[in-house]
Amino acid sequence: MQWFYMHFPHLYGETWHSPFEREHPVILAREQDNCVADANDSARAKGIERNMLVNTAFCLVPEMDIHIMLPHKEIQALKRVARFAYRFSGWVGLDEPDGLYLEVASMRRFFGGLPQLKAGIEELFRELGYDFHIAAAPTPKAARILARSGIELCADKQRFRQALKQMPVDCLELPAPILIRLQKLGMRSVQDVANLPPGDLSYRVDKELATNLAQALGQSDWKPEPFHLPESFRLKIDVEQEFESLNPLLFPMASAVKRFCRFMQNRCLVSQQLILRLIHRTHPATTFSIHLATADNRVDSWVYMLSMQIDRVVLPAPVTGFELKASDFEDIPPTSFVLFQDSANTHEDKKAYLLNRLAARVGADQIHFIGLSDDYRPERQTLFSSQPLPPEALPDNLTAQSPLWLLQVPLQINIRRYQVIRGPLRMNSGWWDSVTASRDYYIAATSGQNPAALHWLFKTPPSQWFLHGIFA
Known about the structure:
CATH superfamily of the largest domain: Reverse transcriptase/Diguanylate cyclase domain
Number of strands: 19
């Protein structure tokens, strides 16, 4: 097997604080010990270091911004990048708080090799605005040691052994007492530690260190627990100020919808409905639905619908944040590809594009699809659905003797004004739903008109005559 490891040194700040990379100094602090957990480039340039007391950092840079790190948001940030990583690996493992394991041996042929796969991962996460280190190795723990040491390479067992000579023991991220113990034994590099027999290392230094090195060197098997993707999509965004109009929020909302579309594309899913919840400070949340005419996962369809929808929303109070939720998904139907252009697939894509644009203009509840049923009652042979109906063969009950133009409500008539041409055609139906129809149908021509019109009539058991349809 082959594994990638990705280390995100500034994951929390890049996820939850968009101006983290700006020129103004920003630090992230841990509430439990009041120490600096991370700092942006501007703060580090002025002497701020990790694990420094916040009071000391504030004395060095009084004008800096301080943000408290919340534990639940740390794991949320890691799960967010794990979802993106599933595009490149079928096995993604979490290494809290800022690392990911990716099994990539099964994906090498699909992407054309490890270099191409690595390039694709780097392109995506750079586009998303993340700073990261990535390395490959035969075991997940080996890839972790390389990436967190800043050595980004695709290593086999031999190259990994050679890289260990360049790593000081600090790269193993060990507690201070264990580091002191290794220094007393004359261990300066990770290679020195790896050369010790596992039993001696476990007994004289630390059992957990011996286990981790054995797993990194492939002497014992270990795989990370796989991260399972959620079955529903949920994304909450907080804004830094109150907005009395939704137009300024269109850009962050469109970015959130883009992530929703990536969520579906990574899983080969489509959806027709997305719930948008607007959060207010002192007022109950405003919730409305973005509904497409046909299920889709393309960004342009959803963003266009979003832009049309928010123009109709009347805000009861200023907005302080919003949330997107979706749980109804469908699998993308299998498609056969041919050498030349597939006109049928192109036609379906254009139809879906047109229907979704139409739904954005008039509302998805105003669009209906027509189909045919196998009910023998003429007034129930036409179906209206909010979903596209699959093409089917014509039902056996549709005959050439029935017209296409039916009256919505049959009209009682005087049969003396007609001349019967053909009939009767007897129909007894509807006994299963208590709307019984017992009729004899006739084709008749109107008398006294020039030219005569052909009408479709029926007679009920009480000998009452009704006009039900007109032939073209």
